[in-house]
Amino acid sequence: MNAMHSVARIAGKAVATAFDLSSYKTACDLGGCTGAIAYELTKAHPGLSVMVFDLPAVVEMSDHFRPEHTDSRVSFVAGDFFKDELPKADLYILARILHDWSDEKAHVLLDKIADTCTPGCGLLVSEIFLDEERKGPSRGLLQALSMSEGKQRSAAEYSLILKSHGFTTVHVRHTGNLLDAMLCIKE
Question: What is the pLDDT of residues 107-156, one digit of tens each?
């Protein structure tokens, strides 16, 4: 959990400021761990409230990672995104989630998100996007060495997967930080 929190703290601002999210009022950070990205999102977007949805054991530990000056627009809800009903929001966030899962499990999760979304709902995906030749960036290739079930993907591969669930990619941003970002809209 410490490692996930550290990566999110380093990359959180770059992800939170990658796009204009001012049209969204409620967000749900699925598997949002300690809320590090959620706190950055509320700093960057004053009209946004973010609910972090993660496993009960993770939510119980979140108090240990809260920033000194917490934001009341960040809340935590315990649940399993594969088993439980997803909270309603107009923006869903998957930061460092999809790379953990096989194509099959990623499709199960994306089906669930797509079924919960209404047209116009946003999906912010933040991962290390491999280049189209799958030869870099090196941080993505190194991370792939330690993965078991999941896999690293390029922005085009993510776009294709998301399109099959009714999401159109509207922006891709290589942030120059640890994580890149992609904003998609539900058709």
Answer: 999 999 999 999 999 999 999 887 777 665 555 445 544 556 667 888 99
Helix ranges restricted to H, the chain: 2-16, 36-44, 56-61, 103-116, 138-145, 155-163
Do the beta carbons of residue 21 and residue 45 sit within 8 Å? yes
Question: What does the alpha-carbon distance between residue 109 and residue 10 come to, in Å, rounded to a whole number?
Answer: 26
Q: Does 5 participate in catalysis according to the annotation?
A: no
Phi and psi of 169, rounded to 5°? -75, 125
Q: Which residues contact 24 (CB under 8 A, 6 or more apart)?
A: 45, 48, 90, 91, 122
Q: Per the residue annotation, which of 99, 107, 171, 174 is the catalytic one?
A: 99
